[in-house]
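Sequence only, no structure available. Ideas?
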Amino acid sequence: MALTSRERGARAPLEIVPSHSADVILPRQPGKTPLASQTVIVIGSSTGGTEALRTLLTALPANMPPILIAQHMPEMFTHSFAQRLDTLCRMRVKEAEDNERLQAGTVYIAPGHSHLLIKNAPTIGYSTSLNAGPAVNRHRPSVDVLFRSAANLVSKNCIGIILTGMGRDGAGGMLELKQAGAWNIAQDEASCVVFGMPKEAIALGAAHEVLPLTSIAQRLVTLVHQRQPSI
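Reply:
I predicted one. Tokens follow.
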């Protein structure tokens, strides 16, 4: 007896989406000396991250180094999310575009359709790079991809932050940042909506500090002043 289309669909094997590592987007290149002295801040977040980012970014002054963010979010929402934050923050907030020079006082949010990376830009320091390659840890944008690109290029001049989120995306990348000389902060369990991504990073020994969400902005200001007081 012939099966109906519904029955055939019910018996079809489930398609398993592969969980790629950041290797599918860019190789790890440890030990490189940064070509620019510019401080760069990179942030990764997922579940609960939109409100966590609002809390963090609205507490920062305008004169901060460039901030790049990978927030797990569908592409139809990232532009409006950036616009909303731009109305609330003293820093300029925008959805990242390809090949933009990283400028102080600006926050770049990865568009939901692409990974956000940092690349060297001769004579001007660093710029953005968008990559529509495969999802990493089943996410695009992936925190691991952003963190690896920062570890490869910015290394000791980087500050990494991992906020609330489900899963493990960003944990391995944060460890690479630490090994490259960056300073890392993880959000604490009590202030997380989901203590998944920070927990994984902490378990790997990737975080130098574990802080409540409301304490991260002031700590960032202090770290930036210590590293780049003339900004």
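The mean pLDDT is 92.
Hope that gets you unstuck.
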